[in-house]
Here is the input.
Amino acid sequence: MAKAIMVQGTMSNAGKSLLAAGLCRIFRQDGHKVAPFKSQNMALNSFITEEGLEMGRAQVMQAEAAGIAPSVLMNPILLKPTNDVGSQVIVNGEVLGTMSARDYFAYKKNLIPDIMKAYRKLAGENDIIVIEGAGSPAEINLKEEDIVNMGMAKMAHAPVLLVGDIDRGGVFAQLVGTIQLLEEEERAMVKGLIINKFRGDKSILDPGVEMLEKKCSIPVVGVAPYLNIQVEDEDSLTERFDRKTAVGLIDIAVVRIPRISNFTDFNPLESIPGVTVRYVKTPHELKDPDMVVLPGTKNTMEDLLWMRESGMEAAVLKAAARGKIIFGICGGYQMLGETLSDPYGVEAGGTIKGMGLLPMDTVFAKTKTRTRVTGKFMDLEGELAPLGGISLEGYEIHMGDSILKGGAKASTSIYDSVSGQQKNDGAYLENVCGTYVHGVFDKEEVAEAMVRVLGEKKGIDVSQMTGVDFAAFKETQYDILAQELRKHLDMKKIYEILDAGI
Here is the structure.
């Protein structure tokens, strides 16, 4: 069985996912067969495996760092929040049902066999498992029957590295307070502390590090710097949403709907020099972009009603009337139609009016479509013509089907790897286009063609604004991550912790 090491944090967004990915890459570089694992993930960013199973993107990112194919074994439980008090519960890649937080808390211990079956299979196939925790292990109201932090560490016999975020302040209180709130048995499992996201002169921090080690009786195994690494974020705490940058030659505005999902779809566009991707919540923030994108969402109907109430729908309709390119993906694509119907109560129930930019109706189904696809854009007409015939690949994950009516034409032709069927997908009409395919911009040629559409419409030369092979680009980012962590983590000590276990 593999050796295991676990990365836990003092809070959400302390940097666990990125540090776990960095360790995966370092162990791989050192010749070990390594895999990531997170027993329970809560995120709206998900991924579909080759088998058509759904998992969290954080473990996909970590699997890429480890140089292996993503597997649902790496994330046996995924919670996708549907509202403030409930989530869709996905077990082993398939929907179990929707539960309130209270009901799930009472039920989750029943999922321990699923967790351990997945973990043992991974452990039997690898040398090292890098386990990621969730939130904080010191949430004393949630510690009973814990299956993702110290409870998981116990089940896997994994020593723990505890990570604190200095960028948000109070890192010493974070780490000392977390240790103090753990049970004695749990404290003994924490073998190293890491201060993460540090900026500045480390020598100024050294006295605090020394005091921290004395107070906790646990060594600090690293002070990791704030790293601007471009890999896929896990959840809505991403700093992308709050990033303030000067608008480039091409300005793309993504509507930041409340239940936005899979916003990693737009990372390839961000990587093109001269392209700005902004996430906007108000009509004032929208301003005058070259393209407006409606992204995926966990609840299309409620997010469309939010668009309506906030004034964003009216602002997008005005942009469309001015001839701006409007692009919808998955739930955002569904919003562009004439009606959305939910006869089975999958979302809000009933029927609501869509934005009316594409002549189509969407009906939500009982079962979720989960598949990977390959294909190409159809021979599009008008301003979108540069996209015509270009190959694409990605995945679909949605609950509804959209039926085109007179006027609109399918935007893509795709091969469904799960059903084995060739089918038309999406729709376009003049300056409005939509698709169910997540990852549609991942291929360099698609991202470049989209920029070419926008450049030609704006009358500017975009010939030098070339995209990148996004998969190759991410490989360079993982190598940079590993290189930087080697400089700032005591890897000798971390290997000793790994070898000693608990």
Notes: The two ends are 15 Å apart (CA to CA). The CA atoms of residues 253 and 278 lie 5 Å apart.
